User: Fold these one by one.
Assistant:
Number 1:
Amino acid sequence: MNHEEKIPFWRDDRILKIVIQVALVAIVVTIFIILGSNLARNFQRLRLNFGFGFLFDSDRPASFKIGDSPIDYSATDPYNRAILVGLLNSLRVMINGIVLATLVGITVGISRLSENWLVRQIATVYVETIRNTPLLLQLFFWYFAVFLRLPRIENPLIFLDSIFLSNRGMYIPFPTGTLQTWLSLGFLILSAILGIILWRRQTQVIVQQGASGRVFEIGLIGIAIAAILVIIFGLDWQQPQFDRTALTFEGGLNLSPEFATLLVGLTIYTAAFIAEVVRAGIQSVNKGQWEAARALGLKPGLIMRLVIFPQALRVMIPPLTSEFLNLAKNSSLAVAIGYTDIYAVSSTISNQTGKSVEMLIVVMTTYLIFNLIIASGMNWFNRSVQLKER
C-alpha cells in the first residue's frame, strides 16, 4: 500500500508564500514604527505639537493674498480657506490640461501618419522638439518670453472685439450664472448624451449590418449644429469691458499670465507624449483591418473612427493613463512661475506656521487622491473597451 509522502513545510510552496507575505508585512510595519517613533522624538525634542487644528482656527488668519482665486478669498480667512483656493487652482489646471492635451495629442498623433509630407514633418518636429526639452525650461519660455512680453494693459491686443491680451493676462467672454445659461447647459448635456447614443448605434449598424448609417450621421450633424447655436446664442455671455481710465477690465473671465503659462506649457508638453502614444496605437492595428474596411467601401474618415481608432484604444489607454498622471504631478511646477496651486499655498502656510510635516502630508494626500481618481477613471474606461470573452 503506497502512502503519499508528506512534503516538509520548508519545501511547501503554499506555506512559503504565506511566510514571505507575513515577513514583508512585518518589515513594512517595523519601518513605519521606527520612522513614526523617530518623528515623535524629534517633535518632543523641538517642543512641537502635531495636529491639523490650526487649519480651522478662525483666530489664525492666513495673512497672505492669492492672486488667482476662483472663489471669494481674503487674507483674513483661515488657512483651510487658502488651501481650498489652492486645491481649486490645481484642479483648474489639471482638468483643462488633460482635455486640451488629449485633443492636441490625438491631432498631432494622427498627423504623424498623414500622407501629406509637410503635415507629417511639422508634427514630427513638434514631437521631437518638445519631448526632448525640459518642462521647466518650457514653462520659463512661455512665461518670460511670451506672456510677460505681451503689450501693456494700456494698449492690449484685441481679437473679435471681445478677447483682450496684455501682460496682465487674457480677458475673454464668460457665461453668467443666469437661468438662460443653466437651461442652455442642460440642453448641451442632453445633446451630448443623445449624440453618444446615436454614434454607438451608427457604429453597430455599419459594423454588424454593413449599412451606411446615413440616417444616424444626419442626426449627429443636426445635434452638432444645434449645440453650436446654443453655445453661441443660448449661453448668456458676459463680455469683458475695458475701462481705460482705471486701466481695469470688468466682466468676463480673467486668465492670469501664470495660469495661462502653466496651462499652455503642460498642454504642449504632455500632448507631445500623447501624440506618440496615439501614433503607436494606430500603427499596432493590423493592416488587414484597413484593407477589409476599404473593401467594404468605407471612407477614410469612417475607417479611422469606426474601425482603426476603437481597436487602437485598447493599446493606447494604459500609456495614456501614465501621461495624465504625469500631467497632474507636473502641475506642481506652478511654484516656479508664481501660480498659487495647492503646493504653493501649502509651502507658504508651512513657512508661516512651522507645520512642515502636516502640510507635507496635506500635499501628498491631495496629489495621491487626484492620481487615484484619474487612474480609477481610466481603468474603468480601459475595461469598457476591452474585448468581452464569452
Number 2:
Amino acid sequence: MNAARGVLVFNAGSSSLKFAAYRGDAVAPVLRGAIENIGAGARLRLREPAAEALGDTADLPADGSPAHLARWLMVRLRRRWGDFDVEAIGHRVVHGGDAFAEPTRLDAGTIDALARLVPLAPQHQPQSLAVVQAAMACWPDVPQVACFDTAFHRTMPRLAQIFALPRSLTDAGVVRYGFHGLSYAYVAGRLESLLGPRADGRVVVAHLGHGASLCAMRARRSVATTMGFTVMDGLMMARRCGAIDPGVLLYLLQEKGLDAERLADLLNERSGLLGVSGLSDDVRVLEASDDARAAEALELFAYRAACELATMVAALDGIDALVFTAGIGERSADMRRRICARLRWLGVALDPQANARHAARIGAPGSAVDVLVVPTDEEAVIAQAARAWGSG
C-alpha cells in the first residue's frame, strides 16, 4: 500500500478513548475503534477494514490510566501503520470556556489555559489533556488541533446563557456553556439533505447517550441548550441526576453531612438511571428487565426529556423537526416512543414500524413535526477541522 497523508482523531470521554484515522479527503475512516471501560477493566473495540493493521492487541494494559492507555495505543498505531503519513491530529476537548469558540492549534499556552478549566469538567478535561500530551510526545512535529464541545453554543443569545445570579459572577464566567457541540455540529450539517428548507427552521436535537442534552436550533445554529455551566445540568442521564433543586444540595451538605467530594460522586456517579433503578445505567438492561424500578427509571427519563424539550420549543416559538441522536436516541425505539408519546400536544406522531426499524424518518404521515433519527459522528467533525490545519 502506498504512503498516504491523513489525519488521526482522538475523542476522550470520562471512561473511554475513541479514535479514528482518515486518508486524504475521505469522509469514511479507514480505522475506527475505542478503548472502553477505562478504570474498570479496559477493553479494545475495533472496526473498519484496516483494523488488523494494529496487530495482536493482547498486551492491552487493562488496568492502565487514560494517559497510559493513550500512549499504548499511539505507539501501536505508529509502529503498525507505517504507510500512514500523519499530517494533523484532532482532539475532542469538552470545555473551551469563554476563550475558545473554534478549532485551535494546541501549544503550551493553550494547554495551560484549558487546564484551568478542569474544575468545570473534572471527569473529562483531564483525560482529554492527557491524550493531547501523549500525542504530542508521539508526534512532536505534527499539528495538534483541539475541537470544543462548548463552541457550537456560543451563538446562543445572552438571555439563554446567563443565570439569575449577581452580575459579578456572570462577568466572571459563571454562565451556561452547553456541551455535546461536536455532535450537534454534525447533525446540523446533515439537516439540509434530510429536511430541505425546513432545515433552517425550528429544530430540536436530542443527544441521548450516557450523557444527555437537548439543543434548540434555528438556521442550524444553537439558540438554547439544556446543559449549563457543567455537564451536570438538564436531562436525567445514565448516572447524573440532571437539573435539581439547589435546596436539595444544601440539605445534603448541611443536614446529611456530605462533603463536596461525596456530593459530586452522588450527583455524577450514583444518580440518573442507575440511582433510580438501583440496577443499571444501561437502557438496554433496563428495557429487558421486568423489575418495577427499571420501568420507573425509564419512564422518568422520558418524562424529564419531554418536559425539558418543551423548554426548547419555547425558546424557538414552536417546532418543525425533532431529531434523535447518540446511543439511546439512535438505538432505543422504545425510549423514542415513550418521549414522543408525551409530545402529542405538539403535533408529534410516530410511525411505529419506521421507529421499530430505526429508519431515518420515523414520523407518521401527516405528523405536524418531522421526526428523524440521525446517527452522530463527532470524529468526522474533528477530522474536518484537523485537515484544515494539516493542509494549512
Number 3:
Amino acid sequence: MLFSELIKELSVSKIKGDLNIPVKGIAYDSRKVQPGYVFVAVPGFVTDGHRYINNAVEKGASALIVEKEVDAPGITTVQVRDSRLALAQVSNKFYDYPSKKLTLTGVTGTNGKTTTTHLVANIYKAAGYKTGLVGTIQNLIGGKEVNASRTTPESLELQRLLAEMVNSGVTHAAMEVSSHALALNRTYGVDFDAAIFTNLSQDHLDFHHDMDDYAAAKAKLFAAAPLSVVNTDDERGQDMVQASRGDVVTYGLHKPADVSARDVSITARGVSFVTTGKYGEHLLNLNLTGEFNVYNALAAFTLGMAQGFDPETVKMALEGVQGVAGRFELVDCGQPFAVVVDYAHTPDGLENILKTARQLADNRLIAVFGCGGDRDRTKRPIMGKIGSSLSDVAVITSDNPRTEDPQKIINDILEGLKSGGEKNYTVIPDRKEAIAYAIKKAAPGDVVVIAGKGHETYQIIGNIKYDFDDRAVAAEVLKELGYDKS
C-alpha cells in the first residue's frame, strides 16, 4: 500500500515530502519501528511520541504522522490535528477494515463486561460459528489464546487482532469496550453490529471529569451500533437509549423492560430464572451465581434473541458457561468454609459481590479488599464504608499500589469507615498476610471474599509487576492449614 492511499481519510493540515512511497507497517512505539514503517507520534499521558521521532527515523521509518511541528529532513511527514485519531484511521485502512467482515458485539459498562462478553461469545460458538473474543482476561481467536494487556487494545493492536480473526476464519466476535477506549478513539472506525450496556457506577474518575463525562464516553458505542441492548434498571440506561441510532431492546429485573426474569433462585452453585417478555418464557439454569449474573445472562440472552438465534441454542450456550476466571471464583481445598476471589474493584462491584456472598453465608462474611494506586481516589472511602458495613470482618490491604504509598491509600479507605463509626476492621498492608489472616480467622459456614484482583497474576508496586495471584495465595494458605482436596 502506498502512503498516499493510507492517509486518504485523514484531515491533513501540512504535507512534506513524497507521498508515493510504500508502507510496510505502522508503529506508534519507536522501538517497534522497522524499515519502511510509518511512525505515528502520539502524545500520551506518560510521554510524548514526538520525542522519539529521531529514534523512529534511525530504525528506518519512511514516513511520519504527527500533530506537532517537527524537524525531520528528508522524511515524508504529514501533520494532522489529532494523531491518536489518525492512528485509528490508518490502522483500520492498513488492515482493510476487518470489523466490516465480522458480526461484532461490543459490551460496555463498569461491571459485568467480561462475563457478558464470554456469554455472548459462547452463544456464537454454540450456533456453530468460529468465534473471537477481545477482553480483560484474554483475547481469543477460535480456540487460540492471544495475550491481553488491557481491556480494549490500542487501535493498531485492535485492528491487527481483528484482521487475524478474519484471516483465521472467525465470523462472529464479542468485545469488551472500555470508556478509555471510547474516549481515546481506540475503537474509532470499528464497525459494531450490536452494543450491550451492563451498568454504570463510580470508577475511572481519575480519567473522566465526572459521571456525566464517564457516561458520555460509554454512549459513543451506542451511537455507532445498529442494535443496542440496554439495562433499564441502571439510571444511566436511558442515556444509552437516547444515544442509540438503531433498534433498542431493553432488559432488567425491577423496571419495565422488553426482557425480564421471574422465579429467580440464587444458590452457591448458580442461579436459575425464567425469562419473560418479548422473547417468551425460557428456563435458564446457570453455573454462575449472584444477582449480577442474572443481569449478565439477561443481557446475553436478549442479544442472542435479538440477533435471531434459536432459543434452545441460546439456552444451551448460557448454561454451558462453567465460570469466568476471577469472577466469583471459588478456591476449594475441601475446607468447611467458602473462599471466593473476585475482580470487584469499584464501589458497586464490591457491594454486589458482598451481598451475594452474604446470601450464601451460614455464618460470618469476611472481606479482604483495598484500592489501586494512581487511580480514582474519591471511591476509596466509599469502598471502605461498603466493605465494612456489608461484612462481619473487613480486612483492609493493598491492591496494586503502583507509585503511591500503600498506607496513604489505606488511610483514604479508612475515612469511609471512620465516618460510619465502623469498628469491625483490621488493617494489614501486606496482601499475602491479609489473605492468610482472613482465611485463618474463618470458621465453618463462613464466606471469605478476596476482592479487587480476580484473574490478575501480579501485584504492581512502584512501576514493577511482581508475581501474585490471590487464588494461588489462598490455596497455599488452605493447604498449610491441612486442607487439600486432591
